[in-house]
Amino acid sequence: MKYRLLFPALLSAFVLIGQTTQSTIDQIYQEALSSSPVYPNLEYLCKKIGNRLSGSPAAAAAVAYTRQLMIDYGFDTVFLQPVMVPHWERGNKEIVRITQSNAGQMDLKALALGNSIGTGPNGIRAQVIEVSGMDEVEKQKDKLKGKIVFFNGPMEPANYHTFQAYGNAVIQRAYGASEAAKYGALAVIIRSMTQALDDEPHTGSLRYKPNMPQIPAVAISTRDADRLSQQLKHTKPVEIYIETHCRMLEPVQSYNVIGQLNGSEHPDSYLSVGGHLDSWDVGEGAHDDGAGCMQGIEALRLLRTLGLAPRHTIRAVMWINEENGGAGGTAYAQQALQNGEKHVAAIESDRGGFLPIGFTSTGTDEQKARLAAWREYFLPWGLHSFDLPGGGADIGPLAQQGTFLIGLLPDGQRYFRYHHTAADVFETVDRRELELGAASMAALLYLIDQESW
Fold it and tell me: pLDDT tens, 139-165?
């Protein structure tokens, strides 16, 4: 009889714990949606500081701003972690012009790719060869010497998972220049990495392979890519003139910016949350990744404001140099290893400030099962997707110590309209969606912190 009485009592206790947890989660969201400063904080970053490429004065200003913001919020510790970062400059505006075709001369909307060398003031003029992707370079290798190679492989428009479509296509941007240079090409043109058909060129970094010739690389808008492809079908040959003035300078000192709430029970076990502070040198870096940085800071502010003192030490981290090097994430993981800091979990927001629909994750089956079990707490706030793999570029290096890697998952259908473009500005971010993302990160931090790992 005693056992029959005990089971309902235990069940009631579990229900009560669940109700209390849900109540706390709801309070986090209510605070974010009624009193959050995350949106004006992002406005300041975008409008007063602007785009913040690693090594630039604006990147240094962003370091100072986010450091002071976390000091003003009264976080237990705020500090700068030194990181040496690459210093690439775009220089004067790019010129990419069709100089010979059936349609006559035509200027194409273009941006040099990050880390690319420039053409110099005399530019490069040559015939164009179109390829649909990296595999076709090998097939046409005998035709590429002395040519400009045009990579026209699109992000698959029918793929609902936009980041998957991006991952499949972006290899052209990352390694196309080195692959074409191997066969004597003079320069490359890349179709912008977006599923949209518009006039907005998208920049992004390339990676020159060691011991390979380095050649200039530019991206053109998707509409111009279609125009160029049509000209190549009707005109033989088509010639293009490219002039860029970008250059790589010596590395400079920069910093990861870290704010911390000290843990009461497990001070030497860490949870990290945040985004990357640097952005490309066009637009304002609103979605990529000002939103993620402000959400990371806001997640800690929400916990502190609501008096949810953490058991583990929780950090908001503004990683530097994600866009064209990854130095910040690498340095953070290396110093954590050197200092013996056990990172239980890390959450990154680097998919834009759009409506959150769930979390991606990379970890053990047990870790992923715990995350999936919390889905019910987020359903009232619209988050339902907890099964996709992923994490974030900046937190990726923490995987070597077994850290559970988590990415905030917003609706991704609009992100690649703005990604790496001049259109990535504050006005494209919705206040309520940004607040919901910050609350989701804070709520997940709270749940992770309550458990022993």
Answer: 999 999 999 999 999 999 999 999 999
- Find the CATH number of the domain harbouring 167: 3.50.30.30
Number of domains in the chain: 2
451 catalytic per annotation = no
- 190 contacts 113 by C-beta, under 8 angstroms: yes
Residue 295 and residue 441 in contact, taking contact as beta carbons nearer than 8 Å: yes
Residue 18 lies in a domain: no
Domain ranges, residue 149: 91-245
Beta strands in 90-158 (DSSP E): 95-100, 106-107, 110-112, 124-131, 148-151
According to DSSP, the β-strands at 106-107 and 95-100 are antiparallel
The last residue of one of the domains, among 212, 245, 278, is: 245
- Residues 421 and 321 reside in one and the same domain: yes
Whether residue 405 sits in one domain with residue 418: yes
C-beta separation of 205 from 114 below 8 A = yes
Q: Per the residue annotation, which of 322, 341, 348, 435 is the catalytic one?
A: 322
Residue 187: which of 158, 220, 222, 150 has the closest Cα? 150
Q: What are phi and psi of 450, to 5 degrees?
A: -75, -20
Q: What is the pLDDT of residues 3-46, one digit of tens each?
A: 344 444 434 444 545 689 999 999 999 999 999 999 999 999 99
Same domain flag for 239 and 381: no
Specify if 140 maps to a domain: yes
pTM for the structure as a whole? 0.94
Q: Helix 162-169 vs helix 171-181: angle between axes, to the nearest 10 degrees?
A: 10
State the number of CA atoms in the 13 A half-sphere of 351 facing the CB: 29
How many Å apart are CA 386 and CA 368, to the nearest integer?
Answer: 9
Which residue type, as a one-letter code, is found at position 113?
Answer: L
The verdict on 74 and 101 lying in the same domain is no
